[in-house]
UniProtKB/TrEMBL annotation:
<feature type="coiled-coil region">
    <location>
        <begin position="497"/>
        <end position="529"/>
    </location>
</feature>
<protein>
    <submittedName>
        <fullName>GAF domain-containing protein</fullName>
    </submittedName>
</protein>
<keyword id="KW-0175">Coiled coil</keyword>
Length: 806
């Protein structure tokens, strides 16, 4: 019994049976026969209890009069229906329940003593407004009926959550205003209509207890578990992007309610049509597969399913059920599927293909530890939920494909987000013409009048280090091979070993000099074709040098000691490149926020980057030359930061490699064009090609009249062609010197003539290694203008003489 009214209500509640008693009085007075006799007997029984007519005010009055109330309500609660109907006396939208039918009592008893029945998903505010709407509709003739369905969620003794829809009969209730009631005007009603969420307003117009609700209501419940479960599943699947632990539990709870199987679990197996294989779910770690072992990421369909299930689920796209795994294994003893299920304690299974537009997306797996609980008959209950599951999985698969496309675009092509809009515009135009069955040739994507910026952080001496590591590894391998060959020549009796030994020693001598391009290939080829067969023959003959030969082959493996120095070199280059690229990408976020521009980078023996900025890149955003100056200043600072990052972390590298930094200044705007064959942007036009030629040749250039490179460890080099560029970059450098990022000394250099290129100059300045950018934020060109007037720089000649190169 539950007699707890909600905390606040516009009603003053009086549970009364006066209408029913008055009806019985009419029957007793106007009729004769059994009905009148029955009415008179009931009236006689209730006569000693005036509170039943006048109004019950406390819980004890119901408890003490339970039997009398039951007799009074006998016509409304027929004994013949008490085991079938789920019915009780209640007050609409109030937490008051009594005189339940036997079935209702049984349902509550199965839920357990700790269970407290309560409305689902409703709060005090909603119920208060709901009560107010009853008054408005009944008294003021509005149509505000708050008819949102009400539910009770009640668990069974087995823990399965069942959902019951609540229906009310209010024929025995009447409303009467109290002294607290407020007379409402039409303006008040219209104000309430537009202010559902204003709880204070509703309480102002309908103060608590301002209307007397006298009488009783009838509550009837019907089992809406499947309908409610489907609705809940729809909300769970469509309500968010990620299927986390809580959502996975919600989905399983829904299926348990539908199938009334307390231990039912749900799995999913993704289908790859390209390889006709099953894979793990790519978008959720929670929905594991019971068909595919955890350690297996993908498996051919024919290796996962038996012939019958494969044909039913994949080919015919029908449900496949096994009600008894033991019987299935007995009839199909070679089935891997049956054994996998049995190992997991699964005894009945339903496999349901997820189909969208005729294409299979995967398989939903319903499993239970109970035999017979899942079968080919109740498999058809999936029909009501499969549309929602299919739409959700289709959405997830599409989202996954979009992510894959984004990764491909990000990692394998040069379509940067800043220029994506133009590709999208052209693609949309192509699709529009195609929809109209018209031919359209995709136009080339070009951007005119953009300002280029180029920079690089190069690993110094990488070629020499690579050759040295290669020489060291080959020498170690040759020494080991020579030692084994000479020992075998004494003990094995294998012919021609002296000639092999002599050839290996000649390679060893050759390695002492500079490497030729084909030296490694020749040595490896000779070892593979001439030496290794001898060692393998010795292993077969079980000569006493077998352990040494086995060790040799272990060391000759790619992960063995004969590749140790090369691995250390490759690891070092990879670490430097990844660290530099990550830093550059991170700083790019800030630069893009200042003004969108095209950005690309390349990893070689170091990291190179190209930037293009101009009005055509982002035509909807105002463009000024200040944006170009800001980006050039940003570029210098980021290269300094990358140098600092490497400087303070180089000691932990496998090889102590150093880096040098270079910027190519180019003040004239140019055009870039997307080359379809190479899937990347390149400069467009013969004149603009000079910029690309300089980029390709500048990093190995020397100072004019010397053999020293223009780049140097710990220094930033800016290559330029004219006086304006010199003044501009000297302005940036002096500003950053004032901020403690660069040392005071500046070297003004002339660059040697390159093939087809002459007249290049360079500025070189040392980076301060005891500094870093404040709060990891670049200084802007606006901040520079506040401290340095670039106009003054035009009239200054660089006072520092060319510093001799060490």
């Amino acid at each position: 019994m539950n007699l707890n009214a909600l905390a606040e209500s516009p009603f003053s509640l009086h549970i009364s049976f006066h209408k029913l008693i008055e009806h019985l009085e009419e029957v007793a007075a106007a009729q004769t026969g059994p009905r009148a006799n029955y009415a008179r007997s009931i009236l006689k029984e209730v006569e000693p209890f005036p509170e039943l007519r006048n109004g019950i005010t406390n819980k004890d009055q119901i408890i003490n009069n339970t039997e009398v109330i039951s007799h009074l309500l006998e016509n409304l609660f027929p004994v013949a229906l008490t085991d079938n109907e789920i019915k009780a006396v209640s007050i609409p939208y109030q937490d008051i329940i009594f005189n339940q039918t036997r079935r209702f009592k049984s349902i509550l008893s199965s839920a357990g003593e700790a269970f407290n029945i309560a409305f689902r998903d409703y709060n005090e505010h909603q119920f208060y407004v709901m009560g107010c709407c009853i008054i408005l509709d009944e008294v003021y003739g509005t149509q505000f009926s708050f008819t949102t369905p009400l539910y009770y969620d009640i668990p069974t003794a087995q823990g399965i959550l069942k959902h019951y829809r609540i229906l009310y009969n209010a024929d025995f209730l009447e409303l009467t205003p109290t002294s607290k009631a407020v007379d409402l005007t039409q303006d008040d009603i219209e104000l309430l209509a537009d202010n559902f969420d204003n709880f204070d307003l509703w309480k102002e117009k309908f103060p608590p207890g301002s209307w007397e609700l006298r009488g009783f209501g009838l509550m009837s419940l019907f089992d809406a578990t499947i309908e409610s479960a489907v609705s809940s599943l729809k909300g769970t699947l469509l309500g968010g992007d990620d299927i986390d632990d809580s959502k996975h539990e919600d989905v399983e709870s829904v299926f348990r309610s539908i199938y009334r199987v307390p231990d039912l679990r749900v799995g999913f197996l993704s289908f790859d049509p390209d390889e006709h294989s099953f894979t793990v779910l790519p978008f959720s770690e929670q929905f594991k597969s019971f068909l595919l072992p955890e350690e297996v990421e993908a498996e051919l369909c024919s290796d996962t399913l038996c012939v019958h299930s494969l044909s039913t689920v994949v080919n015919e796209k029908l449900y496949f059920a096994i009600s008894d795994i033991d019987k299935y294994i007995a009839t199909s003893p070679t089935s891997i599927m049956g054994k996998r299920f049995k190992e997991q304690g699964i005894n009945s299974v339903i496999l349901a293909p997820v189909i969208k537009n005729g294409q299979m997306l995967g398989i939903i797996e319903l499993v239970s530890g109970f035999k017979g609980k899942l079968n080919s008959i109740n498999a058809n209950q999936l029909d009501v939920v499969m549309p929602f599951i299919t739409d959700t999985i289709d959405r997830k698969v599409s989202d996954m494909q979009n992510r894959v496309q984004a990764i491909i675009q990000d990692e394998y092509t040069s379509i940067h987000p800043s220029v994506y809009w133009k590709f999208k515009k052209e693609a949309n135009k192509f699709l529009q013409f195609k929809a109209q069955h018209k031919h359209y040739n995709l136009k080339e994507i070009t951007f005119t009048n953009v300002y280029p910026l180029y920079g690089q952080v190069d690993i110094k001496g990488s070629s020499d280090t690579r050759n040295n590591s290669l020489q060291t590894d080959l020498k170690n391998q040759l020494c080991a091979a020579i030692s084994l060959v000479e020992k075998l020549s004494v003990s094995s009796g294998i012919e021609s070993l002296d000639a092999v030994s002599q050839r290996l020693r000649s390679y060893e001598i050759e390695l002492a000099s500079a490497l030729r391009a084909d030296t490694e290939q020749q040595i490896q080829q000779y070892l593979e074709q001439q030496v290794h067969p001898i060692f393998k023959q010795a292993l077969v003959l079980e000569i006493h040098n077998c352990p040494a030969i086995t060790k040799y082959f272990e060391d000759a493996d790619k992960m063995g000691d004969f590749h140790l120095q090369r691995r250390k070199y490759e690891t070092t280059v990879a670490i430097i490149n990844e660290r530099m690229a990550t830093m550059l990408d991170k700083w790019q976020v800030e630069a893009q926020a200042a003004h969108p521009h095209y950005y690309e980078r390349f990893k070689t023996d170091g990291v190179e980057h190209n930037l293009y900025i101009g009005e055509k890149i982002a035509p909807t955003i105002p463009f000024e030359m200040e944006h170009v100056h800001n980006l050039r200043l940003w570029q210098i600072q980021v290269l300094c930061e990358m140098e600092l990052e490497h400087h303070f972390n180089r000691e932990i590298l496998p090889y102590p490699l150093e880096v040098t930094s270079l910027i190519l200044a180019f003040s004239s705007p140019l055009s870039i064009r997307f080359r379809m064959d190479e899937k990347r942007f390149d400069v467009d036009g013969t004149y603009n090609a000079r910029f690309e030629i300089v980029k390709k040749r500048i990093d190995k250039a020397c100072i004019k009249g010397t053999t020293d490179r223009i780049t140097n460890i710990g220094k930033l080099t800016v290559v330029y062609t004219n006086h304006d560029e010199e003044i501009e970059y000297l302005t940036y450098i002096r500003f950053l010197q004032s901020k403690g990022m660069l040392e005071d000394e500046i070297e003004m250099l002339e660059v040697e003539d390159l093939q087809g290129i002459s007249g290049l100059k360079a500025i070189r300045v040392k980076i301060l290694y005891d500094s870093s950018l404040p709060s990891k934020k670049c200084y802007t060109y606006q901040e520079l203008l506040q401290e340095i007037d670039p106009e003054e720089m035009k009239y200054q000649k660089a006072s520092e003489p060319n510093t001799p190169v060490e």
